[in-house]
Amino acid sequence: MKAFLLKNRKIVISVLIALLCVILTGVTLVRYFSLATLLGSQQAAEAFKGESDKLTAQVSAYFPVGGGITFEGVYSFRNNLDSKYVDASIEKPAVGANWKDGYSAKSSISVSGAKATTDCTVYGVGGEYFYFHPLYLRDGSYISESDLVHDCVILDEELAWRLFGGFELEGMTVTIGDKPFRIAGVIRREDDFATKSAYSDGAVMYMHYDALNELQESKITTYELVGVDPIDGFLKNIVAEGFSEAAVVENSARFMPLNELNVLSRYFTRTMVTEPVVYPYWENAARNVESRLALLLIPAAVLPIYPIALAIYWAVRGIKAAINALKTAIPDALDKISERRYERSMRKKAKNG
Fold first, then answer.
1. What is d(CA 69, CA 73) in angstroms, rounded to the nearest whole number?
2. pLDDT tens readout for residues 268-291
3. What's the CA gap between 18 and 187, in Å, rounded?
4. Could you tell me the pTM of the whole model?
């Protein structure tokens, strides 16, 4: 074995390098696809699609600093969206709907619990906000625009601990101003590296948008939509048309390799801020992941080059060797056939002579 390895040292080294490249390529691809599915806030299109064969898309609109819309703007957009589906000859399904949406307004507020009063970040949410942000429920349930009453709030673990020193708080109340609000649930924030690096809100409470708007006038600064996307860009174009002042992002395909190539091509300029939009933490987390995925495309493209080139090299050598062997074998075979024919001919002559 040692003699064989020494004699074929170059071949063995080439094979080992190729094998290492294949392994590293596999590791890179596993890492790529694990990152691509890391953030729950970017997976609404897959959730909406379920087991159906429908084409779906998720689109987000982020409004500029000082801008935003009210619920009337959301209501108007929803009506326009329904008419667009009608124009596209897409009927409303017997069960469910062609789309879901969620929206939020961000502010700060003072809230009181059994142990303390503290300031916190508050998100006034509407639609099916938690469909787009499936935060882990430590206790209780989510809130939704379809709830009969809008006097419920959700606390994150940090705020729950500050106000009550515990987490099992469903049914208990907090006070905002002089109004009591029932706690619907307690959530745990995302613990992935991208969200942790982007998150700066501190303790957080979620409440219905209209309830927040009654306490303090607030504009909706984030609108999110998921639905049937009969042709590529259908939903994105509707959102861009309906909210022309907003920065519009299509979330559903942003982590696909072709889109990441576009990110890579403008890797250094994409960090330049050219629009007065403060993105929410989940969008900043998604942009963090985008940047990492774009960089992963480089080893994913470069590492397979050597083993592929080596395979082509050996395939060419094998073909050439086979051709040379045939060039030698065919004449030899023809010579043998001629010799046999000659021998048979001579035997016949001897027999007849």
1. 6
2. 777 666 668 889 999 999 999 999
3. 48
4. 0.85
